[in-house]
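Handout, section B. The chain below has 103 residues.
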Amino acid sequence: MENTKMKLGIAAYSVIKRLGNFEGDEIPAVLIGSVFQLGKSDKLLAKLKKTVQSQYPDAKYTVPDKAPVYGAVLLAMDRIGMKADASIYSTFNFYGRRTVYEQ
């Protein structure tokens, strides 16, 4: 398990390095997926942060309270020129309380 934690951190800072151009800027790291959103392992998150911050100390971490599909919907709406108003976010909040992982 320890090796897996390290690999996640290495993968994260590899992505940051490829994206580049973060000199002097805060680096947003959005942690998505069931491992972060449902498992909420403090040890996993701490190891990932430690590994990433060894290379990128300005990284800031966010664990969204919605599934990634909501972001995809917003991107699709933007693509077709549809504005996301308060009713869209209200609907997301209503349905976002239930996830595909619930049984």
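Note. The chain has a mean pLDDT of 80. Compare this with the example in section A.
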